[in-house]
Amino acid sequence: MKPDRLHCKGPTRRSFLELGAMSLCGLGLSDLARASNSRVVSEDDPAVIFVWLPGGPPHMEMYDMKPNAPSEYRGEFLPIRTNNPELQVCELMPLHAGLADKYNIIRSVHHTFSDHGGGHKRFLTARDPKEPTGFVNDMPAVTSFINAALKQQQNAASSGGLPTNLGVIEKGRDQIDTFSLGAAWMGSQNTPFIVNGDPNEDNFKIESLTMAAGIAERLEDRFTLLNGLDTLRRDVDASLSMRAMDEYNKQAVDMLFSDTFRQAFDLSRESQKVRDRFGRHAWGQRALLARRLVEAGARFVTVVLENPYVSGIKMPEYGTYNWDSHAVNCHIFKEAKIRLPMYDKVVTAMIEDLYARGLDKRVLLVVTGEFGRTPRIEVRPGTHTKINQPGRDHWPNAMSMLVAGGGMRTGQVIGATDPKGEYPIERPLSPNDIWASILHHMRIDQNQTFLDHGGRPHPILPYGQALKELMG
Question: How far apart are CA 14 and CA 35, in angstroms?
């Protein structure tokens, strides 16, 4: 995947925080006072952990296996029974088997965009993109609409110093357009606050706050300047970029002065047993960090699980970076023997943890990629192995995903594909139906509109219905 890059004219959250004390002088005393106020998190603050699997996970090696399909379709792995009589999963995911009563599998989501960029934009904006390739959004990601809608809700006015919308992503893949999380005309103040790096490392830091943290000690000397600068700030606040900067300022100081913020990122507060259960690698610790963030008050956290070969895990010659399991990229079955057990451990730890901590009603977990993989296996020479090996191509016509928590009914298999796993034959759904279900959980009206720069109203979702099967 080679995402297009957007060089934004305005500041990003990270670039602001790296500006240091001079930017902080643009704040008023009232803003600093507000930063010390925290809010008790309650059931009235529904949250979402959205696990994104870029590249497209293979539905027929995970949740929609077809053991009776012809050999050129069914793959090498066997399905195993779960504690849900309706569901079988891949033998490489045994931990899923004992928890199948606590999650749902949806097998019938589909769309028409087979390019990674088009698939990302179609899923994450809930709209057909104007350009079927590339990762720069022409419409805001749904997460941007969610961020803006939550700002308008009175009970989301303060989150104890935590951003409402965060992304936990690998360093080097953390540009806002890498995964089509851009806000388009809604402005970069509505993009996720990005946390990058490997939380498993002992010296893990929030890079965008490292410089500014040392500045906080010197802020006291500047308090007398702030009142006068407030007037100047209001005078220059007519431009959109300055309004965006003002939001960054407020959020930055909230974070710098917030015990809630610092504690949420402190994984040493978790027991070794819990950290080990998630897995002592980047995937596992990102997932654990996501739970800590929503538990502390964040409302939407995107966790990207892309490259499993991190934290000392070496990529084999037949391996690939993300879930894009073309034959030229990887030997899909050999690579799955490394990738799927890690995935099994992380996702089931997230589910168990939500229940163990009493978050299974307040927090909704959604695990998906942009599309599935071709049911028919392809065989081609691998770019690295130089020998023929099996793989699967892009396939937006059918995909599988997992949902858990959110107070929903669980232990269900929703939708079905034909005997070869090619197309939905029962309960066909679109990505918009998944977003409608997410918005229903978050108590956000999917028909709420926002005006673009031309004054045209845009609903959060142009269409889509929350799944009645998921309603608690």
Answer: 18
